[in-house]
Amino acid sequence: MSxxxxxxxxxxxLTMVPLLIAGAAMVAIVVAGTFWRYVLADPLLWTEEAARxxxxxxxxxxxxxCIRHGEHVRVExxxxxxxxxxxxxxxxVVAALILxxxxxxxxxxxxxALEATRQTSPALGIPMAVPLAVIPLSGVLxxxxxxxxxxxxxxxxxxxxxxxxxxxxDHADWEAGR
Length: 178
Hints:
The chain has helices at about 5-40, 45-70, 75-80, 85-115, 130, 135-155, 165-175. It is mainly α. It has one domain.
């Protein structure tokens, strides 16, 4: 395993641990909210808001892992019709466009999070900068995963990275590495 592959794997693990913790916390909060509401007839007012913010964090941070494996939303049917060399060129152009978008996301999302430091959430009473901080954070993580993915494709490494030439083999490699 090359240094590039190791870096990508470490970044993925560092991304997955908080996702697992957030997922477990969200389940616990929803169960507690349901128990208090329907069994104790004394609803906790903050559980729905906390679960919503955790779900948003999980979705946006989890999207970076999808990008690492090339599983972001795209139209594969048209690209598969192209010759292999052209497929790689399209992949690079799409990656560049995604990086531009992520740069805008980090810039604008960071500004929104900074502006929201004076606002508090209605039920939790936390600064709105906390839920909004996921926007620039996820943009940075997505960008890092995408750069590593493109670098791995450019050097001919696969290591769980989607390759247009053999999508079924990539899926099998990813499953084997789990």
